[in-house]
Amino acid sequence: MPHPTLPFLTDLEYLPYLDDEGQLIDRPFGIGVYAIFDQAKTLQYIGYSRDVTLSLRQHLVRQPQKCYWLKVQTIERPSRTLLEDIRTAWISENGTVPPGNAAEEPLWSQAIDAKEQMTAEEQATFAAIDDLGKTKLLKQIARRVEAEVLTQLEQRGVKMAVRFDPKLKEEGLLSLKN
Fold it and tell me: Angle at Cα 19 formed by Cα 87 and Cα 111, nearest 5°?
């Protein structure tokens, strides 16, 4: 049972992740805890952030097919303890740990690692070239993965502008530029 002063996840309303124009729901969330649900309203991930909107953008880019609904509880002042307590209470209330808070956690919380999507040919080339060549190849692979991500977002109906951090592409990573 959640602490009596903590909000129950079931008491919060479902909010659509995207509005009718394919943009991230326009609410000034600020600091808070959020729960992300798939199309069938199955809980996928519970997180907390000092900037919920920015976090929701990152999750949408990383997991577009699992971000359809959300529930958010904002707080006035930053308190990691309170945020963690709410997240823990919601996981307990759910009865099982959501996949995004268990085995799939890196897919929700880490930059997209394009290196994991290298072809056998790219892996062989990568192993045989110098550092400058590796940087160029990683950038090329990151661009290919970026194109795939943008296609997935388009298929999901996302119309918001997406810009990845160009410096991270040199490391083969894709994360939204703030």
Answer: 50
Q: Identify residue 141 by its one-letter amino acid code.
A: I
Stretch(es) of the chain classified as CATH 3.40.1440.10: 9-109
Could you tell me the pTM of the whole model? 0.91
> Mind listing the pLDDT tens digit for each residue in 95-135?
999 999 999 999 999 999 999 999 999 999 999 999 999 99
Tokens describing residue 84: 């963690």
**Does 9-109 carry CATH code 2.60.110.10?**
no
Whether the Cβ atoms of residue 39 and residue 94 lie closer than 8 Å to each other: no
**Closest to 80 in 3D by CA, of 48, 52, 108, 51:** 48
Residues across the chain: 178
Question: Which tokens go with 41?
Answer: 């309203």
Q: Residue 41 — left, alpha, or beta (φ > 0 → left; ψ -120 to 50 → alpha)?
A: left
Contact 62, 54 (CB under 8 A): no
